[in-house]
Design brief:
Radius of gyration: 16 Å
Strand content: 15-25%
Distance between the termini: 40 Å
CATH architecture: 3-Layer(aba) Sandwich
CATH class: Alpha Beta
Structural class: alpha/beta
CATH superfamily: Response regulator
Number of helices: 8
Order of helices and strands: EHEHEHEHEHHHH
Number of domains: 1
Shape: globular
Helix content: 40-55%
CATH topology: Rossmann fold
Strand order of the largest sheet: 2-1-3-4-5
Length: 174
């Protein structure tokens, strides 16, 4: 079985080192890229022979933040998926990142099991949705008094069968 290639983008060195150790010790995962911000990440991607399948990126970094990195990845490296890994748990930010095409959003206080599940799910299904993400999309949609955008709705509708009850709840909210 081919390992899932991971990129890790975070400006906090100790956090990045700890995450690198976690990823390197996980069977089925391979760390192929580390960078301290979006600019560094894009520079490294330009010269890489083997692209990461998934990038785990912080939202708040100097130089280029997670939002801009997400936009640049979609333009230049559309096959690379992005999972946001951030301390920010605001619903508007979460919904905004999902609507902008992030494949998942985790807060940094998630446990190792959820992180590995998110990585494997994004690798196999293209995205990972948890209760926090679903609630964010629902609540932001409700406060806008507008239905979910097409991209958010298609995202929710394509959720794996095991998450059908979440998708049904989101559709009812529309």
């Amino acid at each position: 079985m081919e390992k899932i290639k991971i990129g890790l983008i975070d400006d906090q060195l100790l956090f990045r080192q700890a995450m690198a150790a976690l990823i390197q010790n996980e069977p089925g995962l391979s760390l192929v890229l580390q960078a301290e911000n979006g600019i560094d990440c894009l520079q490294q991607l330009q010269i890489m022979q083997i692209m990461p399948d998934i990038i785990l990126a912080d939202m708040e970094m100097p130089g280029m933040d997670g939002m801009e990195l997400n936009e640049q990845l979609h333009k230049k490296y559309p096959s690379v998926k992005l999972i946001v890994l951030s301390v920010h748990a605001g619903e508007r930010l979460i919904a905004r990142m999902i609507e902008a095409g992030a494949s998942g959003y985790l807060v940094k206080n998630c446990d190792k099991t959820e992180l590995i599940t998110a990585i494997k799910t994004v690798s196999s299904a293209g995205f990972y949705i948890n209760n926090n993400v679903l609630k964010a999309i629902q609540n932001v949609s409700n406060t806008r008094h507008q239905p979910l955008s097409c991209s958010s709705l298609s995202f929710i509708l394509s959720v794996r069968l095991s998450q059908t009850t979440w998708a049904a709840s989101a559709i009812k909210a529309v």
